[in-house]
Amino acid sequence: ARKLRIGIVGQIKAGKSTFLNCLLFGGKDILPKAVLPITACLTYISYNQKNYVEVEFFQEDDIEDIKREAEDPKYKREYEKILKDIEKPEMRQKMKQKTEKLEFSDISDIKETLKDYISESGKYINIVKSVSININYEPIRYIDIVDTPGLNDPIVSRSQKTKKFIDTCDILFLLSS
After folding, report:
1. Strand order in the sheet with 4-10
2. Are strands 99-103 and 52-57 parallel, antiparallel or unpaired?
3. What is the CB neighbour count within 10 angstroms for residue 5?
4. How many CB atoms sit inside 10 A of residue 165's CB?
5. Residue 90 to residue 102: CA distance in whole angstroms
6. For residue 103, what is the enclosing H or E element?
């Protein structure tokens, strides 16, 4: 009586989103692909009669994790942009919402709907923690899928969320580049 939970895991840039586009959508470029590993986020995909996306923003505990990680010289430059964005009043206001619901009419509109949130040039990319895509698409009616940013995601809160999800999966696809 419950949905089958499927996790797509692997290292950053292993082709997880590309794999899902091929598996679920016949190779059509429906699901967004992270251009930069630092900006990847958890993407939940579920069936729903209404098409909508829910974007979850970073909160204060996530920001503290990011600040700690920014101390590592290996990631300092990437995190500086995130930390600067977080301090902008517009971003703070968006983060206070905690989540935002975005509607779209057709599956092919998913990437356009999310462009400000998860594309490389997206306005809010540096404050997005996760994305839940709810689509009226019969082939996924009885499954839930999570496209993870990677097991080696440098943003600790996203890696932790990935690991928690893995424990609840019935099936894992482990992709390797």
Report:
1. 99-103, 52-57, 128-135, 42-47, 143-147, 4-10, 171-175
2. antiparallel
3. 16
4. 19
5. 18
6. strand 99-103
Full pLDDT tens readout for the chain, 177 residues:
789 999 998 877 778 888 988 988 888 888 876 655 554 678 899 999 999 999 999 998 888 888 887 888 877 777 788 888 889 999 999 999 999 999 999 988 998 898 898 877 789 988 998 899 999 999 999 999 988 776 666 666 666 677 777 888 899 999 887
Whole-number Cα distances in Å, 30 to 93, 133, 171: 29, 11, 22
Instruction: Report the run of H or E that residue 93 belongs to, with start and end.
Output: helix 89-96
- The tokens describing 64, both together, are 């503290």
Question: Which structure tokens are listed for 130?
Answer: 């996760």
